[in-house]
């Protein structure tokens, strides 16, 4: 059983009906030579990885681009296709004058499960006052937050705004919120691991798509960049599976992680138990 905590639905056919908007989205998010995918085909691909839930991530940089690349309404539309399978996150450009109102709408009207923030793409630091107001809404509503951490492959994105250590102040300031540093903060893997060790409310996911394939990459990250037993002995309860689809198919990502020797209970925690706890999924926790 697998919960994939990191899927960008940029190519999901129901939100790709407008050809010009689809072109702009692919340009903004650096997806090239890709075509829209039918949901039934995607579900068959997900079944190969044993997926039972999928977390969909939007992106809103509309203060710069005019419209979100993937809007909260897009996410709500997709979740409605299969609410027992999809978990939808919200995204709000904090530079928008109506940012707080839009986040409140995403939670209260659209029923989205948490907030996704990409400070590299926004080119602002995580402790920016405009973002703190959004975090406060998450605290009031007990909604978790996903942060893009580390290198971002999108255009106009600067990694200095998403260095893992930039999120330490947020982990300290909001101890009651579940926070996730995506991509394991790559290339700052050891810094991410250090933060997980210190802050029990902090998680990371395995959405890594950088060099080589998943077999080589997971071996490098979890056996060379980190000590051999760090996952089993120290971080087993704070790492969640994430594929970073569509850059890599979930089944390939899972097979790569399958190739790493782990205790059975650690593997189970990474594949679904930690995400179930992160999102307070009734019946799975």
TrEMBL record:
Keyword match Transmembrane: no
Assigned keywords, A-Z: Lyase
Domain Amidohydrolase-related span(s) in chain numbering: 3-280
InterPro entries, A to Z: ACMSD (IPR032465), Amidohydro-rel (IPR006680), Metal_Hydrolase (IPR032466)
Top-rank taxon, per record: Bacteria
Gene Ontology MF annotations: carboxy-lyase activity; hydrolase activity
The protein's name in its UniProt record: Amidohydrolase family protein
Organism of origin: Candidatus Faecalibacterium intestinigallinarum
